[in-house]
């Protein structure tokens, strides 16, 4: 395969476009030879590795990683590390560990909890929440994640499950006549068989961390619960789906009406129908909404979902209910939980919103910036005489990856929820000198320094220009891909050749036909083989996507576009699935049903 030899000049691509849209730049510099590492270079033994070999191995590793970083387009990580190395290398000389609750000092003093708290406060305010104050139930509590948003999602689902199962709240204090620090369940609610059996809803475009989290937590999806208990009653008709269908594409007459052709956001009407079915039977409800979905970077309409579901929750006694404990004592709490998986989008969309609201940035979004955070309130009006409408804060938790929008040398992130939802931890680890309210034992104390340093170096103005830049780069990539498509149509004298170019409104990712494996590897593209129409093998498409993060430049996109014009850049005859075994496993990669069932994108 020749990416260099077969490639036309930038001018050739230029000539193929109909109208000048965005001026192309002079961009090409020959790519370095593709490097690869072998396991043998890094093998360890009882004698260690001699210094010369060790340096050579580390140099090779650095060269490999730098090359991959410099071509990265496929994943939603920021590779621009600002000045972390200069600012922070001195902290590599100690072991920072934020054991225990971030708002309690704890016994291990080599920690960075003040910075962790500063980061949590920053995002709490950005997301229109009330910063943490001990005992203030509506204030926001959270912690810095040692993993990424996966941990945040898992923790949120754990919290949601225990909260809705009626387990004891941290804030109950001594008000209940039950053993403090014990992990108790409520008494069965009379006449309400399902009052403590939460059911979870999330869309087809949801990240695979949810499928894992609910398996770990033994949380039933509505699909499982439906199949087990109400096999013939799916309110959408037919079989119970595993996930809430994603929205259909706008009716342009061009695309088929299947979610795989749609924007990737949740189908709000279908979600409401499904939630209503279970709420009416008394089940408490967990809904996950995506804010920047993994493949299409779609934003679920958190406002529309909240405004529609509040009536379902209110009509079925889920806005406030009594949880009673054996031996006396009861508490009031809600019977629903809305989690926002903002792994990517919660990091930059608030800044895009600021840009859209201030003419000085000259940014006009193609659609309104969707609301998603703790500021979102919906009103329930029972319509009953004497009852006043109530305003309800709808979002219970938000997870964010630190390495995605902000950029960090390793996975990290934050989870923010509210004091009023915090559960009593299963036991108190006196050993760590603070409540064991987080997920792990040891917690990464370096990540808060990295996130703090990024935020300290990025006043709002700078964040806003980065967010707007990403939008512009995504629009630019679409234009470039269209030029590449035109080039191939001209070259093959075939006007039907399709690169399947698509971009969801406000997305910073663009999807397109999968190029050859060398290009996929060069730019670390992530790919998926997908049936666009369920069970129809003739509808199979091989797709890839590229992310325009804040460090993405026109140069990089231009270089990429040139590679896509190489002689063997695409196999246009590729019609059958080619699941590729990974080098380590013999099993094939399962093909996705529309739109995203193999969860193949990190
Ligand atoms: C929507 C969404 N949620 C969760 C995750 C998982 O995040 P992390 O890799 O930080 O664990 C991702 C990762 O791509 C994602 O796109």
Automatic annotation (TrEMBL):
Which PROSITE patterns did the record assign? Answer: DDC_GAD_HDC_YDC
Give the start-end ranges of region Disordered: 1-31, 572-602
Domain of life assignment = Bacteria
Please indicate if the UniProt record lists Glycosyltransferase as a keyword: no
The protein's UniProt keywords, in alphabetical order, are: Decarboxylase, Lyase
Q: Which GO terms describe its molecular function?
A: carboxy-lyase activity
Q: InterPro entries this protein is in? A: Group_II_Decarboxylase, PyrdxlP-dep_Trfase, PyrdxlP-dep_Trfase_major, Pyridoxal-P_BS
PANTHER family xrefs: HISTIDINE DECARBOXYLASE, PTHR46101
Report the family membership: Belongs to the group II decarboxylase family.
The protein's name in its UniProt record: L-histidine carboxy-lyase (Histamine-forming)
Annotated source species: Actinokineospora iranica
